[in-house]
Specification:
It is built from seven helices and six strands; from the N terminus they run E-H-E-H-H-E-E-H-H-E-H-E-H. By secondary structure, it is α/β, with parallel strands linked by helices. A hairpin with a 4-residue loop joins strand 3 and strand 4. Helix 3 crosses helix 5 and helix 5 packs parallel to helix 6. It starts with 6 loop residues before the first strand and ends with a helix.
Length: 171
């Protein structure tokens, strides 16, 4: 039996405050209206705000999922996600930013690759830094969406980041 694979989309910007989180939340709602099962992953590991924006409390985060993957305890996404609606789940950033530094980058890849076989659409919210976590996400997703403003400094930084990504991924 062939497994159905969903699509993964990563949202990235050259600076904070450009609307990534708001766009992802709205896009999740649009995919829900199209009948899709959606997972939002808050990969802003040191300052994630998706749960806060949705007024959701949580006990488990991406840190717990990665830790359980590392020690072969991971069973299913249901343990780690917060239900937003019937069709939208959220995998939150760690509550404690110190937990982010305990996550091994390879488990981010495992989480994303596992998610696309459990959801129709996986939307990933990143921070604006070219961290190993973000680069891993950018390297495994189906689509990268850059969000920017027309501010000259934002455009300069976006150009630098695009050049870096082209070199790293040989595009």
């Amino acid at each position: 039996m062939k497994l159905k694979k969903g699509k993964s989309l990563c949202f990235f910007s050259a600076k904070g405050g450009v609307g990534k989180t708001v766009n992802i939340i709205n896009l999740a709602g649009i995919f829900q209206q199209l009948g899709k099962k959606v997972l939002v992953i808050d990969l802003d590991l040191y300052g994630g705000s998706v749960a806060h924006a949705l007024n959701k409390k949580y006990d488990y985060s991406i840190y717990n999922a990665a830790d359980d993957l590392m020690f072969n305890r991971f069973e299913s996404f249901e343990k780690y996600v917060v239900t937003v609606t019937e069709s939208i789940d959220l995998l939150c950033a760690p509550k404690d930013p110190r937990d982010a530094s305990k996550i091994e980058i390879k488990y981010i890849e495992d989480i994303i690759n596992n998610a696309v076989f459990n959801y129709d659409v996986v939307l990933i919210d990143t921070n604006h830094a070219l961290t190993g976590f973000n680069l891993m996400a950018l390297s495994v997703v189906d689509q990268i969406n850059f969000i920017t403003t027309n501010d000259p400094l934002d455009l300069k930084n976006l150009n630098y980041q695009l050049m870096t990504i082209r070199i790293l991924f040989m595009l």
